[in-house]
Amino acid sequence: MAELSDLLALYRRLIAARLRAQLQYRTSFALDSTGMLLISFIDFLAILVIFANVPQLAGWTLPEVALLFAITGLTFAFTDLAIGHLDLFPQLIRDGNFDLLLIRPRGTLFQLLTADFQVRRLGKAIGALAVLAYALANLRIDWDPGRIAMLLFIVPSGVVIFASIWVATICIAFWSVDAREVSNAFTYGGQFLGQFPINLYDRWLRRFLAYVVPIAFVAYFPALYILDKPDPIGLPEWLRFASPLVAVAATFVASAVWRIGVRHYQSAGG
Amino acid sequence: MSVPAIELEHVGKDFVVRRAVGRFRRKTDVVSAVTDLSFSVERGSLVGYIGPNGAGKSTTVKMLTGILVPSRGRISVAGLVPTRQRTQLAQRIGVMFGQRVQLWWDLPLIESFELLRYIYRIPPRTYERNLSTFRRLLDLDEFLRTPVRQLSLGQRVRGEITGAMLHDPEIVFLDEPTIGLDVVARQRVREFLLSANRERGMTVLLTSHDLTDIERLCSRILIIDRGRLIFDGDIDTLKARYGKERVLVVDLEEPGPALQLDGARVIRIEGPRQWIAFDGERLSAAQLTAAAAAQAPLRDLTVQEPEIEDVVRRIYQERA
Fold first, then answer.
1. What is the pLDDT of residue B225?
2. Structural domains of chain A, count
């Protein structure tokens, strides 16, 4: 426990320092945040266009899809906010600057995750929150304690799932130079696929999202519970409550992959 | 007997290098950066670790600091196995890479120090004491509140050295600590390292291209070439073994042919000036001067002692 509170205190200090540094560039900060907000509205516009042509999408109404969109968007925005700088990790490996994490008396993954904080990505979260408000206003949900609890748990466990996918895939950088592209395919691609009901997809992709890269646990399964909706593809009911467990499992997998990667690190320059 | 600060036994490090053969096939080569290295460093010593580019210097330092896993052999630093006990070791060593920025680029220097204080869990009293000592010795006060990205190279290096030593490390690894510094800054860094070594008993392992650094600071020199240790001893031994050749420079009254002298040879002629190399152990400068004066009238003369640069160059040449 003492160890954990020590880490949290250190995290708070590192983030505060990053914030001070980022606020030196106010204009670019404002521009970026606005840009992010616009992007998330344009993404939602695409969904509105679909529903202007069809009343339902694979058995889901507009407010229901909006709920999926908002949960996925919010989750991804928070992940991006906290660890979006992982995009730069392959560069860190290529330049050999990962060395600098290895000479400090703290875990390398902890140092990497806490190295920065992308406040400018808040724009994305605000966009997603607006869509969430729209969805909740247009859905008739019976808010019992279980559903309220689910709504509160959904985002943290989704963030952990996304972060684990991000970490596990960015580890490719320990072996190959094109890690960023591959990793983005899983993270940004996962975010895109997660915005829609997975029963829309082909069987292999559904299985992939449910069992391999567990994007379906970010929004789809929890949303089925909140909406009290039968699963169109008939997967077991307990999967709806499995997101926190999946998050824990994903964390273990990601940190194992990370450890193997670090051991494989070759540094740069003889 | 206490445990040595650093100990290596038959350490080697291979890198797997992949290169394209044709369009799709790739061939993997194994390149040995460090072949077979054994040495130990006593606590409290100041050791210079030198070698040409690609000799395996950085690879060794990276293995000693827990960055790279050795392919074979045994390493112990401060009694710990670097890669297996990495975080414990990091707490007890200081590392500075002259060509890397370890401080926070867009934060004022003092804020970097504050962060390091928590990263290394430095007790408040230690932190205050060390910071005030380093501020004085390295003259940090005028740029303590300047963002690191705005510091001059010399200022930044002084900041980096402070950052690497705030947590009272027992052993310090400095890779090119004076690279790119002007004469004044270089001198200041040297004096600082000497005092840290003398007053705190800090073990220092230093790599440098600038052999004057090594000569001024280090009581012991390790020379590595192609992944092997080729010399281990102090400066005087180094000079005695490889620098027996002294040079007598004579100015003749007027230009003439090369002087013919037993046990010596003329290595260069420029007008009336001739450079005569001789073995300092077999011939004295006085004997040689007398022999030269017998052949041609001399106007002036000087004896050049071997420079450490020449000595090292000669070692590499001998082995090439």
1. 85
2. 1
Percent of chain B residues topping a pLDDT of 90: 47
Contact A99 B62 (CB under 8 A): yes
Q: Which domain holds residue A95?
A: 2-264
The SS3 assignment for A247 reads helix
Alpha-carbon gap: A188 to the closest alpha carbon of chain B (Å): 29
What is chain A's mean pLDDT, rounded?
90
Looking at the partner chain, which of B58, B97, B107 has a beta carbon nearest the beta carbon of A270? B58
Q: Is A174 part of a structural domain of the chain?
A: yes
pLDDT in tens, B68-117: 999 999 999 999 999 899 999 999 999 998 888 899 988 999 999 999 99
Strand partners, B175: B97, B207
Contact A24 B121 (CB under 8 A): no
DSSP string, B41-92: E-TT-EEEEE--TTSSHHHHHHHHTTSS--SEEEEEETTB-TTTTHHHHHHH
Under an 8 A CB cutoff, do A20 and B107 touch?
Answer: yes
Q: Is B279 helix (H, G, I), strand (E, B) or coil?
A: strand
Contacts of B58 in chain A (CB under 8 A): 269-270
Would the CB atoms of B15 and A266 count as touching at under 8 Å?
yes
Query: Could you give the domains of chain B?
Result: 6-233 (3.40.50.300), 243-319 (3.30.70)
User: Sorting pLDDT into bands at 50, 70 and 90, what band is B28?
Assistant: confident
